[in-house]
Design brief:
The chain is built from three helices and five strands; from the N terminus they run E-H-H-E-E-H-E-E. It is an alpha+beta fold. It has a five-stranded antiparallel β-sheet, with helices on one face. A hairpin with a 4-residue loop joins strand 4 and strand 5 (120-126). The radius of gyration is 14 Å and the shape is globular.
């Protein structure tokens, strides 16, 4: 699936996550985690990766691997150094209004893998 880098695309993502839930019989707890983590990943791709440029696309794909669902989100941005992300729970960052997206994704997904210089993220969720 390809989405334009616009805020309206987030509504499409919610429908996609509902489709995944039904297709793979995902339990409510995993569904809630998926909803927040995947929406956050797409939000990051739109606003940080593609800088909200509506001419750039966000790609989303998913599949089932044994008892896990993997969702891949990619953007057309320059990438980022995912090894040096500020800790949003550190005292100097606690009052900042942003910077929690990757932290949330790490907490809610069972596995998180960045590739392609940070332009692609794979989120894995246990569904059994």
């Amino acid at each position: 699936m390809k989405l334009l880098s616009t805020p309206d695309s987030l509504n499409v993502v919610e429908g996609l996550i509902e489709e995944i839930k039904m297709k793979y019989n995902v339990c409510e707890d995993s569904y809630g985690n998926m909803l927040v983590a995947i929406t956050e990943a797409v939000n990051n791709a739109i606003f940080h990766g593609n800088k909200g440029n509506p001419e750039k696309e966000v790609s989303i794909s998913y599949n089932q691997e044994n008892d896990k669902v993997m969702v891949s989100i990619g953007d057309e941005g320059p990438g980022f150094d995912y090894y040096n992300i500020p800790d949003p729970t550190a005292p100097e960052n606690i009052d900042k209004p942003n910077g929690r997206g990757i932290f949330l994704m790490k907490q809610l997904a069972d596995q998180l893998i960045f590739s392609n210089n940070g332009k692609t993220v794979e989120l894995y969720f246990n569904i059994s």
